[in-house]
């Protein structure tokens, strides 16, 4: 996998258009994966970092710095640096879906936070930046999507050039095409191939399972966060108690307080990593299931379009056969004074032209469907492979993190236990007076 670097830098206080959000507590974050980097070398490398908050005429928004390094020949320069906002990512993803109907386009993070009024908090911006980086690098690793012209413009164009491209990139024709696909998707497909029916069934089950796991993971995380709060309030109770006791018991109570405090820090650290390294990857694949469903729906729409074309072609051919044996004496043209044979000939010519047009359209749609099916099957295999790798890495790291957490908690209580036993031994030595020692020796 491509080396991923996720960095939150200090908000730019010198820029008149940028507004800082608690820049004093923002810290650089660097995540590297040397094992996967050594296994694969990529020719397109993207970093998303340096978020800035801006105040525009339509409200407040955040932009991110995109740094692209590449060795590909279609790029004029080896390195680019541009700024993009979330709506720009939405536009680019829509262009990818529009240009590659049956490719699985990676998902973007949700537009808003789960809680209102948290849209510009540090945690929200950090999480969004993490997923935007993930999204771009998933696209960059795709053999087809990464070569898309709109994707290249998104990575390289300056602000004014990109704004102009956005305005001209989506017009009336594209909206009509979208409407046609939506119309076709509303028709029941007749003969879906078994392999795509199996995909549809699998992704539906997978989506339901991911939703259940995400819901349970959120509930467990909430319980752990509540537990951390209770531990945070619990430790001072032991400390206050120790201040009211004598020297012997006081030290033991302080040892318990330190163990509780160590457990509290371990839980807080675990909760932070749980959100980033477990809950968010699971949620991303929940969104991924929707992306797969969309690709399957677009494939079905292409097949429905072909089936409708073939049905119309059959109907027109039947109409042509009926026209050959029909009598046009009572037709509208004959009533207007035209020769019935001429009327019949005109209808045959128009019908033949329509049949040829439908035949050509059917051939083109068939060819497109064959290519689309191949593209989707290739992406399906690629998605399964990536899913297996991502989940294996996620679960392995999470298992290691859980073991570290319990080891830390256990070590805290072991330290407290050793201290308590040691202090008891010292107290026994202090309580042995010289006279008692003589009596013991005499008894011996």
Characterise this structure:
With 444 residues, the protein is of the alpha+beta class. It contains 11 helices and 5 strands, in the order ββαβββαααααααααα. The chain has helices at residues 34-39, 86-99, 122-141, 149-156, 159-168, 172-185, 194-242, 247-324, 332-335, 340-431, 434-443, and strands at residues 6-7, 18-19, 44-56, 59-70, 79-85. α8 (247-324) runs antiparallel to α10 (340-431). It is elongated, with a radius of gyration of 34 Å. 21% of the residues are buried. Mean pLDDT is 81; it is low at 1-39 and 428-444.
Number of strands: 5
- The structural class is alpha+beta
Mean pLDDT: 81
What is the tally of helical segments? 11
Could you tell me the strand content as a percent range? 5-15%
Q: How far from one another are the termini?
A: 75 Å
What share of residues is helical?
A: 55-70%
In sequence order, what are the helices and strands, one letter per element? EEHEEEHHHHHHHHHH
List the uncertain runs.
1-39, 428-444
Main pleated sheet: 5 strands, mixed
Shape: elongated
Radius of gyration: 34 Å
Entry keywords:
single chain; 444 residues; alpha+beta; 5-stranded mixed sheet; 69% helix; elongated; disordered N terminus; disordered C terminus
Give a concise summary:
This protein is of the alpha+beta class.
């Amino acid at each position: 996998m491509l080396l991923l670097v996720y960095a939150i830098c200090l908000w730019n206080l010198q820029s008149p258009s940028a507004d800082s959000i608690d820049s004093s507590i923002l810290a650089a974050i660097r995540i590297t994966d040397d094992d996967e980097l050594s296994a694969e070398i990529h020719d397109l490398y993207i970093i998303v970092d340096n978020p800035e908050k801006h105040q525009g005429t339509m409200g407040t928004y955040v932009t991110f710095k995109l740094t692209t390094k590449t060795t590909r020949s279609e790029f004029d320069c080896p390195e680019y640096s541009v700024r993009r906002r979330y709506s720009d990512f939405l536009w680019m993803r829509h262009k990818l879906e529009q240009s590659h109907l049956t490719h699985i386009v990676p998902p973007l993070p949700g537009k808003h936070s789960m809680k209102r009024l948290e849209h510009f908090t540090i945690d929200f911006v950090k999480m969004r930046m993490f997923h935007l980086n993930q999204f771009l690098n998933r696209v960059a690793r795709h053999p087809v999507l990464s070569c898309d012209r709109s994707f290249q413009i998104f990575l390289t164009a300056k602000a004014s050039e990109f704004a102009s491209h956005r305005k001209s990139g989506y017009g009336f024709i594209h909206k009509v095409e979208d409407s046609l696909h939506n119309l076709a998707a509303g028709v029941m497909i007749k003969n879906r191939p078994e392999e795509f029916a199996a995909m549809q069934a699998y992704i539906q089950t997978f989506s339901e399972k991911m939703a259940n796991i995400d819901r349970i993971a959120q509930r467990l995380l909430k319980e752990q966060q509540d537990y951390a709060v209770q531990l945070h309030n619990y430790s001072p109770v032991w400390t206050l108690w120790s201040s009211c006791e004598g020297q012997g018991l006081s030290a033991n109570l302080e040892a318990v307080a330190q163990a509780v405090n160590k457990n509290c820090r371990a839980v807080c650290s675990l909760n932070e990593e749980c959100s980033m390294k477990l809950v968010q990857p699971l949620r991303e694949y929940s969104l991924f299931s929707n992306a797969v469903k969309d690709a399957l729906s677009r494939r079905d729409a292409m097949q429905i379009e072909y089936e409708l074309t073939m049905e119309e072609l059959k109907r027109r051919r039947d109409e042509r056969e009926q026209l050959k044996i029909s009598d046009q004496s009572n037709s509208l043209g004959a009533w207007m004074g035209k020769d019935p044979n001429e009327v019949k000939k005109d209808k045959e010519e128009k019908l033949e032209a329509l049949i040829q047009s439908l035949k050509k359209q059917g051939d083109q749609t068939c060819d497109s469907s064959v290519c689309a099916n191949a593209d989707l099957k290739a992406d399906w295999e690629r998605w399964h492979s990536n899913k297996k790798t991502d989940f294996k890495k996620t679960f392995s790291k999470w298992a290691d993190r859980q073991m570290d957490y319990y080891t830390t908690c256990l070590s805290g209580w072991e330290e407290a236990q050793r201290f308590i036993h040691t202090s008891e031994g010292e107290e026994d030595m202090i309580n042995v007076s010289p006279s008692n020692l003589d009596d013991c020796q005499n008894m011996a």
